[in-house]
Write a structure and sequence with these properties.
This protein has helices at 2-19, 57-61, and strands spanning 21-23, 34-36, 53-54, 73-76, 81-85, 90-95, 104-106, 116-118, 123-124, 130-134, 151-155, 170-178, 186-197, 202-209, 212-213, 217-221, 226-236, 242-250, 257-267. By secondary structure, it is mainly β. The radius of gyration is 26 Å and the shape is elongated. It starts with a helix and ends with a strand. The protein folds into three domains: 2-36, no CATH class; 53-95, no CATH class; 104-267, Galactose-binding domain-like (Jelly Rolls, Sandwich), CATH 2.60.120.260. The strands form four sheets. Strands 7, 9, 10, 11, 13, 17 and 19 form a seven-stranded antiparallel β-sheet that branches. Residues 1-19 form the signal peptide.
Length: 268
């Protein structure tokens, strides 16, 4: 009987001891499974908590995540951002700002701090025409193979027979940003992917510095079924006050696709 009593008592004590875990404290809150104290039992030097760090985005993407890993947190050193996995991708909780300028991003799903507008309204006419935010699971947009998650997609921008789009160019304008605090200048970057652009299907971009359009740069001037993808990186020198970005695209045809993604404005 005494042995049985001691056995039951041991189980109860074990359950109580394992109900909460304390690091730096022997009295963790009963409301917490884990409590980390900034001191050891309320005394000594204060300390912080260090999240797991990865050197860059490629290393972060090398983490073998699944949907049930929602809430997983890492710090990405190359971009200075604490990020959380949302079940399908990574989004920033906070990015370090050490020079008085906040880096801006627009990838149309997780990081959307660099706003934009279009002079042609977005529309969705299925496989007959589309202009807006989409992904590679949307029909023929599977031909856009170099962009991941959501991106800005174009299919038959000249869908005027259905009351959509334009026979001319649509211009996407990324908001004008004050970059004067980035004393070393900034870099503008983005990715693009074009599938089977024909004659008359064209795209260009223009960096705007202090209200002045710089020389327009060709992304693609279509010929028969021309496919092309790549990345753009433009450095803007220190001393600049205002920066913006414009993209012009013209496209006709229900078998030709374009995608733009991963826009960034970051301090040098």
């Amino acid at each position: 009987m005494k042995f049985l009593f001691l056995f039951i008592l041991g189980i109860v004590l074990t359950l109580n001891l394992n109900a909460q875990v304390g690091i730096g404290t022997t009295t963790p809150s009963p409301a917490a499974m884990l409590e980390v104290s900034s001191q050891t039992d309320g005394a000594g030097a204060y300390k912080g908590i260090m999240p797991p760090r990865v050197p860059d985005v490629a290393a972060r993407d090398g983490i073998n995540t699944v949907a049930t890993d929602e809430g997983l947190i890492v710090y990405v050193e190359s971009i200075g951002c604490l990020q959380v996995y949302n079940g399908s991708g990574w989004e920033s909780i906070h990015c370090v700002n050490t020079i008085g300028f906040t880096n801006l991003f627009q990838n149309f799903d997780m990081n959307t701090t660099w706003g934009y507008s279009s002079d042609v309204a977005f529309f969705d006419n299925g496989n007959k025409g589309f202009y807006g935010v989409t992904n590679s699971s949307n029909g023929g947009f599977s031909n856009i193979t170099t962009l991941t998650n959501d991106f800005l997609g174009v299919l038959d921008l000249d869908d005027t027979e259905d009351g959509n789009g334009t026979i001319g160019y649509a211009t996407i304008t990324f908001n004008t940003i004050d970059v004067s605090a980035a004393t070393g200048g900034v870099t503008i970057s983005f990715d693009y992917d074009f599938f089977e652009f024909d004659n008359g299907d064209n795209a260009y971009y223009t960096v705007v510095i202090d209200g002045v359009d710089q020389t327009e740069v060709t992304l693609i001037e279509g010929i028969t079924d021309l496919s092309l993808s790549g990345s753009i990186s433009e450095s803007v020198p220190g001393g600049t006050t205002l920066v913006a970005l414009k993209i012009r695209v013209k496209q006709n045809g229900q078998a030709d696709y374009a995608g733009f993604d991963n826009f960034a404005l970051v301090a040098n």
